[in-house]
Amino acid sequence: MTGTNKGTSLTRRRALAVTGGTAAAGGLAIAGYQSAFADGTPATAAETATETASASASSGSGTCVLMSSVTEGPYYLDGALVRKDITEGKSGVPLTLRITVRDTTESCAPVAGAAVEIWHCDAWGYYSGYTTANPGGSAPAESEDGSTADDKTYLRSYQIAGANGVVKFRTIVPGWYTPRTCHIHVKVHTGGEKEDGTYEGGKVNYTGQLFFDDDIAEQIFELEPYSEHSGTWTKLDDDMVYDGGGASSGLLTLEPVHKKDPSKGYKGSITLGVDPDAENTGAGGGGTPPSGAPGGASSDAPSDAPSASASSSASSS
Fold first, then answer.
1. First CA to last CA across the chain, in angstroms?
2. Global confidence as pTM
3. What is d(CA 163, CA 111) in angstroms, rounded to the nearest whole number?
4. What is the DSSP letter of 252?
5. Which of 13, 43, 251, 297 could be joined to 293 by an S-S link, Cβ 3.0–4.6 Å?
6. List of residues 6+ apart from 253 with CB closer than 8 A
7. What residues contact residue 28 under an 8 Å CB cut-off, 6+ apart?
8. What digits encode the pLDDT tens for the residues 78-135?
9. Nearest by Cα to 202 from 158, 165, 169, 167
């Protein structure tokens, strides 16, 4: 089943602020961001102990299970920055993402020092580094979003887990692109270290994707700026990657900041059960990036990528 997102494309020129400040978030109130991003405080020793004890007690009940690994996809880039807020002024519904990494081989103990890396598209379906790839349907060109975002780094980041195995990101809910459902890519690394603002060395223990409930995605896609991308989006049951396994397959637990107003944002959470001794770079390979990719990549796009052509369906200014 697919969902149809109907909206009128509104053209806007990118406004580069001399001061480097970020643009307003597409009609979303600043208070909404503050509410969604409120839980950014570090865990206390008591919180860490409580989480560890709780996880150990529930490890036999299926709560802590080895996550299903899936494809890396065609839009991965090395060198993401270590940072919590990855929006760079990109507008959208605020999302505070809390990810807990646990060792499935050691009584579900937290994996301290794990580097969690995420990347995802913006509200119109564009990835940084691949901003000319057509997301399908009809969307404004990525350059018309009015933000000051760096086209090579937005919505990509690492965070390094503390003693409780927890990382938190401040981002936005992703949009959609043909033929995929709403999702966030994730990798868990261990054994490396922070260097020059990024994470170097070590190995990848897990490669996966995080997913959003259809009903929540549908509400969000009716809001600005998502509604400026019109067309047909894919629901979970028809997605080529999500296998229907719920949390163990990456389905996020989502809590609205305001139950009657989805524009205020969501708090998303998930526990990733990994084997710190294993190496897993992703089932099925990464695919070939579309044209416009860094390094002169091939123009042959894989099946899980948007059209490789430049944004012919994007409206011009």
1. 34
2. 0.78
3. 7
4. P
5. 297
6. 247, 268, 269, 270
7. 91, 92, 93, 94, 263, 264, 265
8. 999 999 999 999 999 999 999 999 999 988 999 999 999 999 999 999 999 999 999 9
9. 158
